[in-house]
Amino acid sequence: xxxxxxxxxxxxCEGCEVQIVNSKFIDxxxxxxxxxxxxxGQRVNRWDDFDVAFVEGAVITSEELELVKKIRExxxxxxxxxxxxCFGGIASINNFLDINEGKKYVYGExxxxxxxxxxxxxxxxxxxxxxxxxxxxxxxxxxxVVSDLFAGRIPKEHTRPxxxxxxxxxxxxxxxxxVACAGPVAYGGCGAxxxxxxxxxxxxxxPLEDPQTTAELELLKKIASKDDIVRLFRKFAPMAPxxxxxxxxxx
Amino acid sequence: xxxDEYVTQIEGHGRIxxxxxxxxxxxxxxxxxxxxxxxxxxxxxxxDEVPQMSSRICGVCPVPHNLAAIQxxxxxxxxxxxxxxxxxxxxxxxxxxxxxxxxxLYVLAAADYLGVNGISDVYAKYPEAVKRCVRIRTVGNKxxxxxxxxxxxxxxxxxxxxxxxxxxxxxxxxxxxxxxxxNDCIETFNLFASLKYPEFERATEYLAIDDGxxxxxxxxxxxxxxxxxxxxxxxxxxxxxxxxxYSNTKFCILNGHGFHVGAIARINLFKNRLNxxxxxxxxxxPVKFPSDNPFHNNLAQAIEMVHYTEEAIQIAEELAVKLKDxxxxxxxxxxxxxxxxxxxxxxxxxxxxVDKDGIVRGANLIIPTGMNTTNIEEDLYAILxxxxxxxxxxxxKLAELLFRAYDPCLSCSxx
Lengths: 251, 415
Fold this sequence. Notes:
The structure holds two protein chains of two kinds. Chain A is 36% helix and 11% strand. Chain A is α/β, with parallel strands linked by helices. In chain A, strand 3 (50-56), helix 3 and strand 4 (75-81) form a beta-alpha-beta unit. Chain B has one domain (14-414): Cytochrome-c3 Hydrogenase, chain B (Orthogonal Bundle), CATH 1.10.645.10. Helices cover 47% and strands 16% of the residues of chain B. In chain B, the strands form five sheets. In chain B, strands 7-6-5-10 form a four-stranded mixed β-sheet. A three-stranded antiparallel β-sheet of chain B has the order 11-12-13. In chain B, a hairpin with a 2-residue loop joins strand 11 (336-343) and strand 12. Chain B is globular, with a radius of gyration of 21 Å. The chains are: A alpha/beta, B alpha+beta. Chains A and B meet through helix 1, helix 2, strand 2, helix 3 and helix 5 of A and helix 1, helix 4, helix 5 and helix 6 of B.
């Protein structure tokens, strides 16, 4: 019997679902699983029990809060897809700002009609069995997780700093060039696309396990202003552990 | 409360509420997608990081958000990008159009027309069509990746140009890759030209950008079929946003009424500027453009896939012989700037105010699906009224089919 799979998107850009479609495993997935609930891909969607539910996006509305709890009840495994689900994502920058002023700036006199919950990462709301990190997720990560799941294994964390990916690409070091870069403390495995494209790493996959934060901050303080360090960590994974403190101004 | 009635096979969360009483239709396009408040939190960010952040508005069409932001920031900061940079940006847009249209046509829209439930069934019954889609999308993604450093959310495209330029060899390879999908794009046109679209027509105003030379792509004036022809930076004088209590997306009106942006608007307005193969296909098309049938947007997308593939080949071939290293120009002033590009779903406007330290102090974003909302509601009213005698389930399906034909992106429109 084909595994029963659901894919849900909360508030986000849906780029991680696009990465699923971009994956070279797409035919294996289309042919190898039964989509029980996948609004983006099909008309009829059911609330049967799922073997795996992938959840993308941030919980911004109370409807989404209710939805993720329902997903947890219906699924054997819940996998958080991308940094919005894992770490609040870009919209959780709002957590550090005056939300009422923000709503007013965008919606004017109708601001109070817009719901915006303080964004919590999915693992702080429901039990999450595995996180596929990144903004967006790397197709290779998705493929590794899917291979594990097809083989009946729970995927494992592969923790290494982005610097390792970056060095293996032969890139010049951004920090040595004097550019503030999150690479040394950021969770790697992405292939370092940003430094490879000549930009610093902005830590979209959150921190690696036990990062050398003190050393990183010492280094950053020599080359960047406090505001720039805050901006670097308050970007794509603002609610990730450690990043949340730095992005909140604790340097 | 959890809604199970969100329209499927579209990007984001929205539903069509309608009621019929005494022979009169009442209809609302309710967009529940959460508001991420981009305009608010982009304030206080550095201009060189904003294009990467703006791109996160949409994972389906990150390129236009990245580029509209860059163009607006450049205008605000007095930066003039080189001709080479503009060519690379047009190549990024062409690549984006090709893979986004393929996604919409095959993954989201096809199931309806083929009478199946969704993408898995399309794959089971028509594996060749899905493989064609994958081939097209792989090359479209490649185009964005080679220039922007990553397919979803370009990494290196910033005000003034690129943190790293592609090589001539990469351009040569890219031209070859795009040539390799030309037949697949033509087959896509043949498939979508053979479909039977619901009969429905409603005249409206079509808007796209015009740079005086190219089929709409990167930068230009705002023009319509009803004679509007104004500079993009004057957009606030013509396009207004209205708040409706049932929608997190603000509804746009142009001179007080609905208007239509997207592939159908571009073809209706600028079909004479299509590249040769696309132009020939259009001549052979059973559907004639300009068309006032919104369902024909799907066919317009298929024609555009051919056009933008031709464009990608032309630009990549030219750059394969003349691409050279350039200095990136720097900020020369602090002001407010407007950027306008064509996204797959239509004209996209970004506006930013930048201070002398290069920090963004104000932002306003007008999104294609936001522009289309009023027109969609007007179309829904017209099509439901025209079919008022039909059973409710059938009306619901027809309304959703119409909504989907716009290729709406509600994540974008709410942002």
